[in-house]
Design brief:
This is GDP-fucose transporter 1 isoform X1. By secondary structure, the protein is mostly helical. The protein has helices at about 10-15, 20-25, 35-65, 75-100, 110-140, 140-145, 150-165, 170-190, 195-220, 230-250, 250-255, 265-290, 295-315, 320-350, 355-360. About 75% of the residues lie in helices and about 0% in strands. Helix 3 (about 35-65) runs antiparallel to helix 12 (about 265-290) and helix 13 packs antiparallel against helix 14. The longest helix has about 35 residues, at about 35-65. It starts with 7 loop residues before the first helix and ends in a 6-residue tail after the last helix.
Length: about 375
């Protein structure tokens, strides 16, 4: 029996919502069991993403700025997490070679030519993870999402400057809401006496590097045959090498040598756990996109950021003003609105190809 072709609008709806082909559902059986199984899978995957991401942020905050540790070596913490990721990638590659079928992981062999081609991305990658950790070191977990909330704004700006892609008026409005939320958040942190100017600057730089990382990733992926895991491996290998002179120049090796808990199994266990979370976040992010969609992943990330902020305020027993909460809602609302607007524009373009011509006359950056 031949299946009727799907309309383009239906295909896009399936891609954005993660829904399956209704004809497949009809052929695959009846009853609600398939739907319930899929709903359970999505719930578990989204929950795994939330738990991994939030746990990683709180753990990194502990490693970077805990009074009980007194460890002032943010570059070393980042270096060690890159080292753990490198070893995990290589270990899984060896396991996949020894036990084919048991583990699905690409074969990894260090090729210096490929490492050199990935190097420009690795520099941006180093900036991204380093500035992220430095931002987290100097600001509270509750303000962390606002502090590095300008990624969407930089995406729009860099898309215009580097790719000459204009952005619609409605998308620009959502960016304005995000900028307003960021500005109000900084103002309220200052009013409460908890503003770290250095942490805020690192947050802005982290946002810029996240945007650049996305652009350079697209350029470099062909060098690693389109494999995200190979790219992760080479990025972290390059990072480990490039971090070594920084550790010497910034005196962190000396600070580490004087660290009282250097021989503590608990300390190294927490450091290794941080590296495991850093490795796992890449996997669970891909898993969430696979079981839902890129749009749903963005919405989930925004909701996770909201939950993370509330948890941080409760955990650290902080008291925040109404305007402080308003700034967070503006950032989260603006980010969600931007995701919705871009999804709506994609759908409109798919349904009406002539809309592409209209975009040329749309107000843009």
């Amino acid at each position: 029996m031949e299946r009727a072709p799907l309309k383009r609008s239906r295909i896009l709806h399936m891609a954005l919502t993660g829904a399956s082909d209704p004809s497949e559902e009809a052929e695959g059986g009846h009853g609600e069991k398939p739907f319930l199984v899929r709903a359970l899978q999505i719930t578990l995957v989204v929950s795994l993403y939330w738990v991994t991401s939030i746990s990683m942020v709180f753990l990194n905050k502990y490693l970077l700025d805990s009074p009980s540790l007194h460890l002032d070596t943010p570059i070393f913490v980042t270096f060690y997490q890159c080292l753990v990721t490198t070893l995990l990638c290589k270990g899984l590659s060896v396991l996949a070679t020894c036990c084919p079928g048991a583990v699905d992981f690409p074969t990894l062999r260090l090729d210096l030519r490929v490492a050199r081609s990935v190097l420009p991305l690795s520099v941006v990658f180093i900036g991204m993870i380093t500035f992220n950790n430095l931002c987290l070191k100097y600001v509270g977990v509750a303000f962390y999402n606002v502090g590095r909330s300008l990624t969407t704004v930089f995406n729009v700006l860099l898309s215009y400057l580097l790719l000459k892609q204009v952005t619609s008026f409605y998308a620009l409005l959502t960016c304005g809401v995000i900028i307003g939320g960021f500005w109000l958040g900084v103002d309220q942190e200052g009013a409460e006496g908890t503003l770290s100017l250095m942490g805020t600057i690192f947050g802005v730089l982290a946002s810029l590097c996240v945007s650049l990382n996305a652009i350079y990733t697209k350029k470099v992926l062909p060098s690693v045959d389109g494999s995200i895991w190979r790219l992760t491996f080479y990025n972290n290998v390059n990072a480990c090498v490039l971090f070594l002179p920084l550790l010497l120049l910034l005196g962190e090796l000396q600070a580490l040598r004087d660290f009282a808990q250097l021989g503590s199994a608990y300390f190294w266990g927490m450091m290794t756990l941080g590296g495991l979370f850093g490795f796992a976040i890449g996997y669970v992010t891909g898993l969430q996109i696979k079981f839902t969609s890129p749009l749903t992943h963005n919405v989930s990330g925004t909701a996770k950021a909201c939950a993370q902020t509330v948890l941080a305020v409760l955990y650290f027993e902080e008291t925040k003003s109404f305007l402080w909460w308003t700034s967070n809602l503006m950032v989260l609302g603006g980010s969600s609105a931007y995701t919705w607007v871009r999804g709506w524009e994609m759908k409109k373009t798919q349904e009406d190809p002539s809309h592409k011509e209209d975009e040329k006359s749309t107000v843009g950056v």
